[in-house]
Amino acid sequence: MYCLQWLLPVLLVPKPLNPALWFNHSMFMGFYLLSFLLERKPCTICALVFLAALFLICYSCWGNCFLYHCHDSTLPDSAHDPSIVGN
């Protein structure tokens, strides 16, 4: 389970508030995971635990799925309010 310590922080990286950057963010995270899996070759148990956690987060639209944007999730109020400019 040592290799899992390098995979779990990926689930904690916040998604950008700007919708124009969601595609770039998902591509970066996807390439990071692909390169990690090819270079480090984590054990099967770690890879399955990580993929199961990623599937559950993305399937439930809870939290921070970087593969796609859930239509049910909303942006924070500060992302919609143009009057707030870099307080």
Automatic annotation (TrEMBL):
Pfam families, alphabetized: BC10
Main location: membrane
GO terms under cellular component: membrane
Top-level lineage group: Eukaryota
Transmembrane segments: 20-38, 45-69
InterPro entries attached to this UniProt entry: BCALP
SMART domains linked: BC10
PANTHER family: BLADDER CANCER 10 KD PROTEIN HOMOLOG, BLADDER CANCER-ASSOCIATED PROTEIN
Function statement: Acts as a tumor suppressor; induces growth arrest at G(1)/S checkpoint and apoptosis via RB1-dependent and p53/TP53- and NF-kappa-B-independent mechanisms. Modulates expression of genes involved in the regulation of proliferation, cell cycle and apoptosis.
Protein name listed in UniProt: Bladder cancer-associated protein
